[in-house]
Structures are given as structure tokens and as C-alpha cells.
Write a structure and sequence with these properties.
Layout (H helix, E strand, L loop, with lengths): L1 H31 L5 H37 L4 H16 L1
Length: 95
């Protein structure tokens, strides 16, 4: 299951990167054709880079939230749950 989520996550990032690269190429072409000034092209690329990072962060959060939701639904023990059990066992062993 983790592998499937990782693949989905990586595919999403790949799509975001591909979109950014294509957009950068279009911006460069417009700049070369004189339709955009170089400073405008740089500004657009910077904006696209920032937007891409925002999208990657949003995707990471979405994956984390969905993973937590699935794990919660499965009823798996968390690290905290296991630590509490170990602490109880330690106390019982000492008694």
C-alpha cells in the first residue's frame, strides 16, 4: 500500500514538474520572439517556480492526510500506542 501511495505521490510531482518545464519553455519561446521582455520572462518563471513549490507542498499534505486517514481506518497501533503498552509492561514487570 505504501508503495502505491509513493508512486502516486511521485507521479503527481512529476506532472507538476513537467507542467512547469513546459510553461518555462513557452515563456522562453515568447521571450525569444520578442513578445515578452527578459525581465517579464524571469518574473513569470519565478512565479511558476513558486507556484510549483506550493503545489508540491499541497500534494505532500494531501498524501500525508490521506495516509493518516487510511491507517486510522485500519485501526493500526501508532507509535504512541505501542509506547504506552511498553510503559505499562515495564510497570507491571517492576511490581
Amino acid at each position: 500500500m505504501k508503495s502505491l501511495l509513493e508512486k502516486g505521490f511521485l507521479a503527481g510531482i512529476g506532472l507538476l514538474s513537467m507542467t512547469r518545464e513546459k510553461a518555462q519553455k513557452v515563456i522562453e519561446e515568447l521571450s525569444h520572439e520578442g513578445e515578452l521582455q527578459k525581465n517579464e520572462a524571469k518574473e513569470w518563471v519565478d512565479q511558476l517556480s513558486a507556484r510549483g513549490e506550493e503545489e508540491r507542498q499541497a500534494l505532500r499534505k494531501l498524501v500525508r492526510d490521506e495516509m493518516k486517514k487510511v491507517l486510522d481506518e485500519m485501526g493500526l497501533a501508532t507509535k504512541e500506542d505501542i509506547q504506552k503498552l511498553l510503559d505499562k509492561q515495564d510497570q507491571a514487570d517492576r511490581s
